[in-house]
Amino acid sequence: MSQLATPDRIIQIIYLISAALFILSLKWLSAPATARHGVWAGELGMLLAICATLLHKGIVDYTTIAIALVLGTIIGVPLGRVAMTAVPQRTALSHAFGALCVTLVGTAEYYLRAPHVPGFMMAVLSMEVILGGLTFTGSLMAAGKLQEVLPQRPITYKGQNLVNLSLLGIAVALAVMLVLDPGHTRLFPLIIGIPLVFGVMMIMPIGGADMPTVISLLNSYAGLSAAAMGFVLDSKLLIVAGALDGSSGFILSVIMSKAMNRSFTNVLFGAFGQVQTSAAGAVEARTAHSATAEEAAAILGAANSVVIVPGYGMAVAQAQHKVREFYDALMKRGVDVKFAIHPVAGRMPGHMNVLLAEADIPYDKLLDMDAINADFPQTDVALVIGANDVTNPAARTDPGSPIYGMPILDVDKARTVMVIKRGMSPGFAGIDNPLYYLDKTLMLFGDAKAFVGDLVRELAGGSH
Amino acid sequence: MTDLIASLYIFMLAAFVGFEVIRRVSPLLHTPLMSLTNALDAIAVVGAIILAGEHKSGLAAVLGGIAIVASTSNLVGGFIITDRMLKMFKTSKPKKP
User: Fold this and answer.
1) Which of A137, A148, B9, B97 lies at 20 to 30 Å from A226 by C-alpha?
2) Is B9 part of the contact surface with chain A (CB cutoff 8 Å)?
């Protein structure tokens, strides 16, 4: 540190305040009532930190900084205004941008310092660029799959895990060589290049259904790479922010993989989306009961309690606003309506809540799996809209099922079950759902948005 | 070396604080949580600003500049979308007593 520590110390104290504001920001986010304060605290912390950094005495080139800040804002604003259904791919893209920043800074730092890089510094620098590199391409792949620019089906081939693990192994081996002798500048491009390839290979075999877990995991990697950058630059603020982001991503990944009854390794190396044809062989010709909108509306209108189970299919059909009208129609008749949200409903953690909140459905009506499951036996009608696997009772009863053990919404315990669905085809993961063949289940065939619209009309007509 | 150990302590403590604070976030808000932590992660812009601003080499200035663009877009976009999402969450109950 310099002898004239005053300006430097002021900068450090501002960073300290920023770090405190970041922690407060996440703390306030814990409840909807204070959540927006959290955003403001985060914004203030960020503003303070950037202003303090601009005071840094080593800075000579303000033009580049100004141009880059303006460009970043120009790109950032539209990314903040995307539709709520596009939030998962936006999030994946922002993981990619974050990782890109970290990787580029790490690269520049290496070339500025080589060959005089202490061992520990080289180790964290390697970790920074390896994690940054794989998160960058991995997140771009995830964003591409979510945006449906890339095929969502898992792409697998023989020996895939071996190839992936060897790639990662080579990257780590190179890192060790660089730690032993940081002067091997020719090795450095490889330590960036290999993780970039690995990121692509890692996401290739992952299917659409696993995206919530993968996004969370990439979030965690992005955070850890930022923390590593904090070690390289000796920035305590960055270490704190990276650690917060890393632990947040980690917690979400654990929640997501628990909700799908899978381990991390299983998500990353399992290629879940492989078509499960073996189980479907023994299906006998079972019949499902179907009903018209008029019949369904009569039952719904007479019910005391209705639980709506929305799945991603509802969002794809853009039916959430019709669902809101339906909710209003039932509430007007004095029916108690609640929503049951499975942790993996939607394409990222909590996505379904955002989509329903956007349709003005009050958040106290949105109940997560643990809160709602005890209510199903006392529920007159459970209405499933565009959800499939998360309602599949085989997960509880059939040890042969590929989703056996996955926690589900106990929709089958409701007195009557209604399922809005286009046809009898199995869902995303290709698994047959015995729920559809229960005596108490009524299949409502049709497009989610159109069918809910019909229900609203029938309910309105019936009340006059 | 002492500085390194101090940094490791900071990392460990921040990770624990993160676990405790984030565990309490309602599943209702998991999407805004991810977009907010993303925006906060964009604090990496601080490192990029110094790198670009010090202009120690042409390469460092270019990479630093691109890094500023990438992290600023995260920062701006992340805060905007988080606030947009949180504004939508409304309760059916009247305001708290």
Assistant:
1) A148
2) no
Interface of B with A in 17-46 (CB under 8 A): 17-19, 21-46
Nearest Cβ partner of B11 from A111, A222, A227?
A: A227
The answer to whether the CB of A16 falls within 8 A of the CB of A10 is no
* B64 contact residues in A (CB cutoff 8 A): 64, 68, 104-105, 108
The secondary structure element, H or E, covering residue B61 is helix B58-88
For residue A18, which residues of chain B lie inside 8 Å, CB to CB?
Answer: 43
Token pair listed for A405: 């053990």
Strands A366-368 and A336-341: parallel
Encoding tokens for residue A205? 């075999």
Nearest Cβ partner for A39 among B15, B67, B82: B82
pTM of the model: 0.89
ipTM of the shown complex: 0.94
pLDDT in tens, A337-347: 999 999 888 88
pLDDT digits (tens, 9 = 90+) for A275-331: 333 444 444 557 788 888 899 999 999 999 999 999 888 888 888 899 999 999 999
DSSP A272: T
Query: In sequence order, what are the residues at sequence separation of 6 or more whose Cβ sits closer than 8 angstroms to the Cβ of residue A356?
Result: A310, A320, A323, A339, A341, A366
